[in-house]
Amino acid sequence: MADRGGCCPPMDLFRSEAMQLVQLIIPMESAHLTVSYLGDLGLLQFKDLNSDKSPFQRTYASQIKRCGEMARKLRFFKEQMLKAGFSTSTKSAAVTDIDLDDLEVKLGELEAELIEMNANGEKLQRGYNELLEYKLVLQKAGEFFASAQLRATAQQREMGSQQMGDESIETPLLQEQETSTDLSKQVKLGFITGLVPREKSMAFERILFRATRGNVLLKQVPAEDPVTDPVSGEKVEKNVFVVFYSGERAKNKILKICEAFGANRYPFAEDIGKQGLMINEVSGRISELKTTIDAGLLLRDNLLRTIGDQFEQWNIKVKKEKSVYHTLNMLSLDVTKKCLVAEGWSPVFATKQIQEALQRAAFDSNSQVGAIFQVLHTRESPPTYFRTNKFTSAFQEIVDAYGVAKYQEANPGVYTIVTFPFLFAVMFGDWGHGICLFLATLFFIVREKKLSSQKLGDITEMTFGGRYVIMMMSLFSIYTGLIYNEFFSVPFELFGRSAYACRDLSCRDSTTVGLIKVGDTYPFGVDPAWHGSRSELPFLNSLKMKMSILLGVAQMNLGIILSYFNATFFSNSLNIWFQFIPQMIFLNSLFGYLSLLIIVKWCTGSQADLYHILIYMFLSPTDELGENQLFPGQKTAQIVLLLLALVSVPWMLLPKPFLLKMQHENRHQGQSYAPLESTDETLLSEANHDSHGHDHEEFEFGEVFVHQLIHTIEFVLGAVSNTASYLRLWALSLAHSELSVVFYEKVLLLAWGYNNIIILIVGIIVFIFATVGVLLVMETLSAFLHALRLHWVEFQNKFYEGDGYKFHPFSFALLDDNDD
């Protein structure tokens, strides 16, 4: 049986697939291929038979380490491709058979080649950036020295002319001698040039001044454009500096400060002629390096492009191999060390497919002995597996979020497909809003192939995953909107003319005195004349409140009926007689009766007060009903129903614990000689093990009795609170309707009334944003959460245990979701 496609749920969605515990004895030579074929099939959940061993003690630890190393290399390639702006090839190339050893060698060679290219490229780039900085230093410092030399020459000329003019008889004879002695005492100044980050330049200057006690001269010139730093490779704004100093001690201090501030130093010639030669030489080397770097980048890009073409194929191969070896590590080695023993859960329908995979693996690996497949008998509870499709999977996820179904218990997911969107629509009834929601969902459905292959944001991905749930919600909203006769809160005469008319042409009395009936009843839904009339709120409140109770009682009854199907399926007669029957009696004696009264009142048009009837049914059941009587014999019926409700409480509470104790004593009386149970009965009874503890050696009667007491109180009080909880359907429906009216009348109609095009445009924009933001987003989320609560608490707690665990088969198809 292959997976079923299409839109409709399979009939066996009501109960999970029948599962079996299987044992495989696989020869060593075909083990790898066998597990690989089972991964392609994806219908076997392996059990870990080496749970007592650490990962390093297992048989295939070295192979997993190899695969992990290859995965690391592939991640390195992916990072390099992303940095270079390449994407991995998405074309589904035919997967050729790649040998793992060859792939390991190839990946190692490619990694070494790429690392070498990166190292050479970084070295060249660093040299290139250093030369660019050096050229900048030569230019800026050269300008400084040239301007300084010009100023010095001008000063010398000026001083020379002054000296010539000042010579006279009074000039001292010893002046020339003093001058000559001063020139001999002059100290030669050294200098250091380089670049310092602009943000550190002020601190650099202060530290230099303090360290040398002011015996330096610092000259800084800002570079116009940001410079690529050779060390970090980032663009940094820098200043070119020249520091003049005197003495070796000062020089050593300045060098240490430059290192501390990350200032790059470069040699500089004082001679202007040498400066020009150096600039030409540096410019030539820059152009050569640029050509070399471009050639290296082209080679690197070609290598990355080659890797990208085969990356996905290699990645899938490594992931598959790693998962195969992980699975092989879960298998136990037999005594002869020639076979591997595997155990796992599989659906019964997959038996033939698994056997075919085992035979194919034995044939393809040229194994002399085939794998042995046998079914084991166990008391362990099997995993739960529902075969869902793209339509039903989202509804099943809603149920699984509450708890995974116990093995083969009734699955509420089947009913959720209809009841969940319907209860949502009861609260969201507006066919205009429903159409908007449907069109938004249609976008996801039409483009689902494209969107399913893309990485979406968290909210978008969640919306896309539930696209069919939202589609059903929108369709039901259109249906309930037609019943409520609301299109953005505006009524329409879609199914015929209104049955009501105004008393006169002015229609002034419509909101005070009311309308008069002039025609036949409106054929479908609420008559449009009710909207805006003085009776609109009382009428719609009464209608929606009573409808909420009817829907709630119906769904709770469905939940109790499903508990009967569970009890029948698991052959638990105690649950039928002492849970299902008294619960049905209690719920329907009170709230089933109330639902009947609502229907009778609607049919007869009676003015009876149902609140009064229900309250006095408890307070004074023997009193006459008077005008509140809806049918003959009502008083007697109420007394009988009240007595049945009172009897059903001890019926739920008392017999079951005593009968469970009796069953336990009878079961353990002849325990030593008890016959072995059949396999099917064992599996079924274990799957249906009761949480009261009757499968344990000691039977704790007090614990069981307290548990039953809690269960009884919970149901009795829950019958009242759960029925009241369904009134949220009325409350949210009213809130949605009134919000629609407010936005329509107080925004759109108000803007329309000003006869001003600008105000009208603003009003329309505000109306659209309010409708989308509040009604189509917030109200949708609110109604969704309330419908979720009604299913989880009010419906599922009547029958659903939800203490199972999911079936997680070993499947290559699920590897795409994981990074490793």
From TrEMBL:
Indicate how the chain sits in the lipid bilayer: Multi-pass membrane protein
Record keyword Kinase present:
no
Record keywords: Coiled coil, Hydrogen ion transport, Ion transport, Membrane, Transmembrane, Transmembrane helix, Transport
Where are the coiled-coil regions?
93-127
Where is this protein primarily located?
Answer: membrane
Write down the Pfam families for this protein, in alphabetical order: V_ATPase_I (PF01496)
PANTHER family of this UniProt entry?
A: V-TYPE PROTON ATPASE SUBUNIT A3, VACUOLAR PROTON ATPASES
Q: What is the protein's known function?
A: Essential component of the vacuolar proton pump (V-ATPase), a multimeric enzyme that catalyzes the translocation of protons across the membranes. Required for assembly and activity of the V-ATPase.
Q: What is this protein called?
A: V-type proton ATPase subunit a
Q: Which organism is it from?
A: Hibiscus sabdariffa
Lineage of the organism = Eukaryota, Viridiplantae, Streptophyta, Embryophyta, Tracheophyta
